[in-house]
Write a structure and sequence with these properties.
Elements lengths: L10 E3 L6 E3 L2 E3 L5 H14 L3 E3 L7 H14 L8 E6 L6 H15 L6 E4 L28 H13 L6 E4 L3 H10 L6 E5 L7 H9 L3 E5 L14 H10 L3 H11 L3 E4 L4 H8 L6 H10 L9 H4 L10
Parallel strand pairs: 3-4, 3-10, 4-5, 5-6, 6-7, 7-8, 8-9, 9-10
Antiparallel strand pairs: 1-2
Helix pairs in contact: 1-2, 1-9, 2-3, 3-4, 7-8
This protein binds NADP nicotinamide-adenine-dinucleotide phosphate (NAP).
NADP nicotinamide-adenine-dinucleotide phosphate binds next to strand 10 and helix 9.
């Protein structure tokens, strides 16, 4: 019999790259650098073996420093950790892709990323300003490059050994289908917002049928209102199985075949979020079928503007 406590160690096979990716991952979209480094260290010490960062989060340096400190303690090695980072919108021009990846790797103190994602399908005006705006405050998009142009440059990074696998983030099903049709290296992972209020079943079914892992961010609802952690169905299941609402949401995400990402600055919540074990099948079904609310918390998919990062003044 499978031990329910083994759920936290679930690995998802990847169509290319490091073979498999831990299902349960820790995200580092944390505004404060000291808190980021402490949280990344605490996550590794709690058992997480996947760290997600991005050029845009400005947390790569802290994630790199946290990994180095943990590696020096000798219990966890580089090859034990699956590291994800992302190409920002201002670097979609093919000639900017490799330098952007190399800059991320330098900050992370790594030779390669296990997964490199195109952060959003929107190209912004190329340059050092990550949030280029016109005089009216509107984002300046770059019409001179397509998602496929950027994807083709990403494929080059795999053959150059800069990353083991590549993928897409904040994309629609149609955008994934277009890239899959045209790609030489298929997306290994599609990274999007997903939780019981935004289950994305069509995208998940397509990903499963095509050997793509769906990685689910905001798996706990990002502390946004209405609070997913207070949803009556989640709270009732949590009471019944003697787990916390966060543990229920993470278990549900893994058991339905996605790879959830969660974030916390709080060491005890970080530990709580790794102590995930399998729910009975009827509880998984109750969450899938019983929650009817449909809410997207992050509007990044509509504009490419990060929904969870406040605009700099
Ligand atoms: N590609 C994209 O566009 C994109 C967009 C958004 C996020 N992401 C990635 O996905 C990661 C996860 O997203 P997220 O931050 O929205 O995740 P989340 O885990 O749904 O939300 C994090 C929030 O939940 C709270 N929290 C965490 N564990 C908790 C627990 N056990 N009980 C109660 N509250 C808890 C945290 O507060 P405390 O810190 O106070 O514990 C924080 O406010 C990000 O870090 C980032 O790596 C990607």
């Amino acid at each position: 019999m499978v031990n329910p406590d083994d759920l936290r160690f679930t690995k998802m096979p990847l169509s290319c790259g490091s073979g498999a990716m831990p299902a349960l991952g820790f995200g580092t979209l944390i505004p404060d650098p000291v808190a980021t480094k402490n949280a990344a260290k605490a996550a590794l010490e709690a058992g997480f073996r996947l760290l997600d960062t991005a050029e845009r989060y400005k947390t790569e340096t802290e994630v790199g420093a946290a990994m180095q400190e943990v590696f020096k303690q000798g219990k966890i090695k580089r090859e034990d950790v699956f590291v994800i980072t992302k190409l920002w919108n201002t670097n979609h021009r093919p000639e900017r892709v490799k330098p952007a990846c190399e800059a991320s790797l330098k900050k992370l103190q790594l030779d390669f990323a296990d997964l490199y994602l195109i952060h959003t399908p929107y190209a912004f005006q190329p340059g050092d300003d990550q949030d280029p705006r016109d005089a009216n405050g509107n984002v300046i998009y770059d019409q001179g490059v397509t998602l496929l142009d950027t994807w083709t440059a990403m494929e080059g990074l795999v053959s150059q050994g800069k990353c083991k696998a590549i993928g897409l983030s904040d994309v629609s099903l149609e955008q994934v289908q277009d890239i899959v049709k045209a790609a030489k290296v298929k997306p290994a992972v599609v990274h999007v917002e997903s939780h019981p209020y935004l289950p994305q079943w069509d995208l998940l079914n397509y990903c499963k049928a095509n050997g793509i892992v769906l990685q689910a961010f905001a798996a706990l609802g990002h502390s946004s209102e209405p609070k997913l952690l207070d949803d009556p169905v989640i709270v009732a299941v949590a009471k019944r199985v003697n787990k916390t609402p966060a543990q229920v949401l993470l278990a549900w995400a893994i058991q339905r075949g996605t790879a959830p990402l969660t974030t916390s600055k709080n060491p005890s919540r970080i530990q709580e979020n790794f102590q995930v074990s399998a729910l009975p099948d009827d509880a998984v079904k109750e969450i899938s079928d019983g929650i009817k609310s449909r809410i997207r918390f992050n509007t990044v998919v509509n504009t490419g503007i990060p929904g969870f990062i406040p605009r700099a003044k």
